[in-house]
Amino acid sequence: MTDESRSLAERPQGTRRREQTARADTEPAPRPRSPARGHFLATARGTDLTIEAIAGIAGAVNLPMVSRACPVCGSDSQYRVFKEASFDASRWDRFAFASRKTPEYMHYRLLECGRCDVLYANPLPTRESLEAAYREADFDSGEEARYAGDSYAEFLPAILAKLSRRAAALDIGTGDGAFLEHLLGSGFERVVGVEPSRAPVEAARPSVRGLIRQSPFRPSDFERGSFSLITCFQTLEHVYEPLELCRSAFELLHPGGALFLVCHDRRALSARVLGTRSPIFDIEHLQLFSRASLSYALGNAGYDDVGTHAVVNRYPLSYWARLFPLPARAKGAALGALKQSGLGRVPLALAAGNFAAIGYKR
Ligand SMILES: [Zn+2]
């Protein structure tokens, strides 16, 4: 969720220093901004270090990491190392955990599961440090969220036709609630979204802001069997336990309801051609699915009639350019030219490596 102009180096320094001072006045301790900084801040409290200085020092600090088995099938032995870790904690900032940001080409050590085909980060930061990072993640991608929502909404008529009724709908990881508007227009009795980051909720349109619960997704917050449709877009890669999310959604659905997911496809042509220069390789992504691995997860979670479909995304040209793996200077020049000419706002539809997966509860 970000913009080329907001890279750490270019962001206005004064703004963040003021934020830091204001927080120190009102709160006993600064809230961690990212796992790296959170760890360092634990020892930096009470000093007058600026965020910039802390970010620089955090690069040399060991991040607390934990190990795990495959988050889709539970296997802890059938893997190969896909890529060793590549990240520089000093480059982590509040946009590192934002959606649709400029790629940073950083990722954890990635294992490829031989049983279910998922790529998963192992080791990875603790759940608590990631939740803190998301709470504070920044957001400036409202326009792109709307484009994405419009693309995903093209699947709704076919799904709606198969639902047994239209009771409640839930959008997990709803961001600024762009998709809630589509759900509201689809005839559901009740529509709700959950979003862990504060900034996108604050940026939500007034028509949907009241429908968004700002918190991580917690199944216990909702009534079992009460939902007809649960949607979750570009979010399953970010959660600690993706299989648990699919199972929890299954419990929340009534028979005849559906789960509708959109994920990056790690086996898409773009990912295979670009390798780890593909923007899907990112420290925000704790796992990356193929159609096979997500179908495995949905089957494992109890869903029937599971299908996967390519997604055609329609975005402004400047957004596609930002994702493209160019050297920073060339990318800056290209984006500048697109902006100056007005071409950057021209929408372009591409099947760029996302897929939809839909499963039904019988
Ligand atoms: Zn697996």
Question: Brief overview, please?
Answer:
Helix content is 34%, strand content 22%. It has 362 residues and is α/β, with parallel strands linked by helices. The radius of gyration is 20 Å and the shape is globular.
Please explain how this structure is put together.
The protein is of the alpha/beta class and 362 residues long. The chain has 14 helices and 13 strands. The strands form three sheets. Strands 8-7-6-9-10-13-12 form a seven-stranded mixed sheet. It is globular, with a radius of gyration of 20 Å. The N terminus is likely disordered. The site of zinc ion has 8 residues, from loops.
Radius of gyration: 20 Å
N-to-C SSE series? HHHEEEEEHHHEHEHHEEHEHEHEHHE
Q: How many angstroms does the end-to-end distance come to?
A: 36 Å
Shape: globular
What's the mean pLDDT score?
A: 81
Write down the CATH class of the domain at 142-360: Alpha Beta
Q: How many β strands by DSSP? A: 13
CATH topology of the domain at 142-360: Rossmann fold
Strand order of the largest sheet: 8-7-6-9-10-13-12
**Count of DSSP helices?**
14
Uncertain stretches: 1-61
As a percent range, the share of strand residues is 15-25%
| Architecture per CATH nomenclature, i.e. the level-2 architecture of the domain at 142-360 | 3-Layer(aba) Sandwich
Overall SS class: alpha/beta
